[in-house]
């Protein structure tokens, strides 16, 4: 992998991990469309992948450090009994939301990604991701609960359903953040609240993926050049992810209605164009 390819993939990872457009889908489609030869699933690519995930994880931690600090201080009882109860409840919601992805991931992740991991099905799933975003925008007004303004106002059922929606991201081309935000909107959450909970629950998920990949690479020999690329990739991915998170939180705060529509049209267009290019081998 060249230096240019490493930077390109790092920028792509940092942006698409949080935008509701599927980071894994782009990681599969872009090399296929540009005829790049590296293998995302090879052991030699693992160090770079681990560092990309680490960069994204650190970016989320930096952006939401006040949220996490308040949660843990509150849970420890530093801020009083009322805040302690609320903080413990929010942490419990995050644990509940993480359980479905852990269970499904352990059982079926490799089977799903091996079966659907080639470029053509990924392009189809990217198109379907756009349809999902658009459909949810049309259906969200039918929720009997409207305007859930904070994570603390969520129910355990909300967290469990949002966590279950997260599992669709095991299909390359379907977005984790897109699915979880969609689930939140269908449960009556405001766009900003749905995005905040989605990004908070992304931290343990991305960190777990990083640890899992790091464990797999424990026997992989690492050349000095590969290490340098991985470090640069982590920095670039982290900076882009931080900027993406800041943009998205501001965007969802100011666009509660039809907030997902631009991403929906992008995914549908990118999916169709990718299918055409792949079919004609352009």
From TrEMBL:
Subcellular location, principal: membrane
Q: Which UniProt keywords apply?
A: Antibiotic resistance, Cell membrane, Cell shape, Cell wall biogenesis/degradation, Hydrolase, Membrane, Peptidoglycan synthesis, Transmembrane, Transmembrane helix
Protein origin, superkingdom: Bacteria
Its localization reads: Cell membrane
EC supergroup of this enzyme: hydrolase
Recorded GO terms, molecular function?
Answer: undecaprenyl-diphosphatase activity
Its EC number is 3.6.1.27
For this record, an example GO cellular component is:
plasma membrane
Membrane topology according to the record: Multi-pass membrane protein
Q: Which reaction does it catalyse?
A: di-trans,octa-cis-undecaprenyl diphosphate + H2O = di-trans,octa-cis-undecaprenyl phosphate + phosphate + H(+)
- Pfam families, A to Z: BacA
**One GO BP annotation here?**
response to antibiotic
The cross-references to NCBIfam families, in alphabetical order and at most eight, read: PRK00281.3-4
An additional note in the Swiss-Prot or TrEMBL entry is: Bacitracin is thought to be involved in the inhibition of peptidoglycan synthesis by sequestering undecaprenyl diphosphate, thereby reducing the pool of lipid carrier available.
The family line of this record is: Belongs to the UppP family.
What does the UniProt record say this protein does? Answer: Catalyzes the dephosphorylation of undecaprenyl diphosphate (UPP). Confers resistance to bacitracin.
Protein name, please? Undecaprenyl-diphosphatase
Annotated source species: Acetobacter cibinongensis
